[in-house]
Structures are given as C-alpha cells and as structure tokens.
Specification:
The protein is an all-alpha fold. It is 77% helix and 0% strand. It has 16 helices and no strands. Helix 3 packs parallel to helix 5, helix 12 runs antiparallel to helix 13 and helix 15 runs antiparallel to helix 16. This is Putative MFS family arabinose efflux permease. Keywords: Cell membrane, Membrane, Transmembrane, Transmembrane helix. InterPro entries: MFS, MFS_Efflux_Transporters, MFS_trans_sf.
Length: 395
C-alpha cells in the first residue's frame, strides 16, 4: 500500500502527498477513536456518579481534565512532533488509551479517576492529530473535515446505544470503559493502514504563522463558539429541572441531539462548497444566540426540545466552515491544526466559566453566558474579516 511520503508534491486533491482512499479512511477512524468519549461522557460519567464513585463537583473535574488534556495532546502532536512513523505512533497511542481505559475501570478514588482520564485525554488528543494532520494536507479540507465529524458522531451514537442499553446495566461504568479499551485494541489493525509518513507542510515558522491577528481571531472565534455549546450542554439537565423537565426526558433529548449532530455533519458535507464560510459562521452564531436566549426564557417542554435539537444540528454543521476560516487565516495550514484544540478548550472552559455565574439553584445565567459567547464568536469573525481586508489592501 502506497503511503504519503516526504517531498511528494500535491496530486489532485492533495497539497502534498497522495494517500489512497483507504488510508484516508483509516486516519479518520483513528481520530474518531480519540473523540469517542465526547459522545459517551454523559453515559459513562453519569454511571460513575450514580454508582457513587464521584460527587457532582468531582464529576465536573473529571470531564474538564479529560477535555483539556485532549486539546493539549492534539496541539502538542500536531505542532511539535514530526509527521513520521504515523502507523507506530497511532498504535502506541491506541495502546496507551486502552491501558488508561482499563485503569479507569478499576480506579478506586476520584483523584485516580481524574489522573486516568487526563492520561486518556493526552492519548486521545494525539489520535485526533493523526486525522487533522492529514486533513490539513487536503485541498478539500472542509469536506474531509465534514466526513471526519460524521464518522466520529456515528460511532459515538452506536457505542452510546450499546453502552446504555446493554453494557452499563449489566457491568456498570467499569464495563463501559472496558468496551472502550477493546475498541482501541481492535483499532490496532487500522493503525497499520494509515500512511506511514505524511508529506511535509511548510511549518518551519509554525508559531509565527499562528501568532498573527488573523490566525488568533479565527481560533478565538472557534473557541467562543464551543464555549457557547459547552456551557449549555454541561448544565442541560439542571436547567431542564428548573423548568420542570425530568432527568429521563433530558437524557432522551441528549440522545436525540447526538442523532441530529450526525444530520448536521452530513448536511455540511453536502453544502460546504456552496455556502461562503463567513455567511455560514455568522448565521450559525445568530442561531446559537437565539437558542441560548430561548433556554434562558423559561421555555416549555416542546420549546426546550426544539432549542436543544437545533443546537445539536449546528454544533457539527459549523465545523467545515471553521476549518475554512482557519485555512484562510493561515495559508500554511498551521492554524488549522489547532482548530480541534480551540474547540476542546471551548468545551472545557465554557462550563467552568458559566458555573461562576450560577446563583444557588438558578441556572438561567448559564444560557445567558452562552448567548454572550455566541455574540463574541461572531464579533471575532467580523474582526477577522476587517483585518483580512486591510491586509489585502496594503498588499
């Protein structure tokens, strides 16, 4: 099987290198394994809480530690390590993640759980970089990014259903993490079908490429958008309870939202080339603002359902356009490698920042904070457009 190798010029759809369709699919699957936990956290961490392994505050720390570690892992692997020996790197990261999942299954304290999930997050972030490094080398990065989020969300849906209906009722949270470890071990077969080496992108001055006003505003816009979603999603159950919606119903809403996220990702994959990325990001930002204000207004059950489902749809619909935003900001494509880190930091920081505004049992400040985050995301997009136009005028 031919691999992308250093020094290859672009061929057809690729800026550099020429991976086969099977190699691309393998790399996207490896990255998807790294992000499985994002769709499974409500099921797995909810089981940990129900079984008494963690308190509510400890649960938040476990979730936040893992998301921040994923962001750090993806950034470190993408920015500081060469894209060589990707098969062995993928295999080592899969084994490390499998061990962390087994360790989690037998963790006896909250402190140990935080440590195991932080370790898991670093490995998961590295796996994400296996996919994003290859996506960055494509001339159709937005479309392949759409395929990536579709694949990972479909896998999350299937595993969430398996764990919720069969594994956790029979074997508890430990069984769920063992299943994740098994997925990692099985995926070792896929690891050895990714390209051996990725052809080089011009990354000699990677920090200089990222530390520019266009790149920083683009990444901050992504960060703020995911703060909006992270804040609301983390507190959806207590927010629903405040409006008289029981936890079982909110759980059903979360499951339905995962399915709608798949629809959003697939829709974006079809339409990404037909819609200008600026118009798409601005429109989705307005929709996010409206959803947040609706959730802050004390909605009834039907309105609550609709707002949550719309949020699920736009969550992944926006991803290909954020990839295009990052590529436009930095043509060397260094900034696009940090898009997953910006997204994950937003998901991690959003709940923490919103929690500082909660007054007792009143969770309305959470969607209000989310609304402000959505506005900030669009404002940063506007700043990016303004700076880009001025730079073109000067040039």
């Amino acid at each position: 099987m031919t691999s992308t190798t250093t020094g290859h010029a672009g061929n057809g759809d690729w800026l550099v290198g020429n991976p086969t369709g099977a190699q691309l699919a393998s790399a996207l699957w490896i990255g998807s394994v790294g992000l499985l936990i994002l769709g499974l956290q409500p099921v797995l961490l909810g089981a940990l809480y129900t079984e008494g392994h963690v308190s509510g505050d400890e649960l938040a720390l476990v979730a936040t530690a893992e998301m921040i570690a994923i962001a750090i892992g993806s950034a470190v692997v993408a920015m500081l390590l060469s894209a060589r020996n990707m098969r062995w790197k993928s295999a080592i990261l899969l084994l490390l993640l499998a061990l962390a999942n087994v360790w989690t299954a037998y963790a006896a304290s909250a402190g140990t759980l935080i440590a195991t999930r932080a370790l898991a997050g670093l490995a998961e972030g590295g796996l994400v970089a296996v996919a994003t490094e290859l996506i960055a080398r494509s001339r159709r990065a937005e479309r392949i990014g759409g395929y990536f989020v579709t694949m990972q969300t479909l896998a999350q849906c299937a595993l969430a259903l398996l764990l919720a209906l069969y594994v956790i009722p029979a074997a508890g949270s430990a069984g769920g993490f063992i299943v994740l470890a098994v997925v990692c071990v099985v995926s070792l077969a896929v690891a050895f079908t990714v390209p051996g080496d990725y052809a080089d992108l011009p990354k000699e001055e990677n920090l200089a490429n990222v530390l520019t006003v266009p790149s920083m505003t683009a990444l901050l816009s992504v960060f703020c958008y995911f703060m909006f979603f992270g804040a609301v999603w983390a507190f959806l159950e207590p927010l629903g309870a405040q409006y008289g919606i029981d936890g079982r119903t909110v759980g059903l809403i979360v499951s339905a939202s995962l399915a709608v996220q798949v629809l959003g990702a697939m829709t974006a994959t079809v339409f990404e080339a037909r819609i200008d990325y600026r118009a798409a990001i601005a429109t989705i930002g307005v929709v996010a603002l409206v959803c947040s204000l609706v959730l802050a207004s004390g909605p009834g059950l039907t309105t609550f359902w609709m707002a949550a489902l719309v949020m699920g749809f736009i969550l992944l619909f926006i991803v290909p356009y954020q990839i295009r935003l990052a590529i436009t900001a930095d043509e060397t494509r260094t900034a696009v490698l940090l898009v997953p880190a910006a997204q994950l930091f937003g998901l991690a920081i959003g709940p923490i920042a919103a929690s500082l505004l909660i007054d007792g049992k009143d969770f309305r400040p959470v969607p209000e904070f989310a609304a402000a985050s959505a506005v900030a995301s669009v404002a940063l997009l506007g700043l990016f457009v303004l700076v880009s136009r001025r730079r073109r005028a000067v040039a």
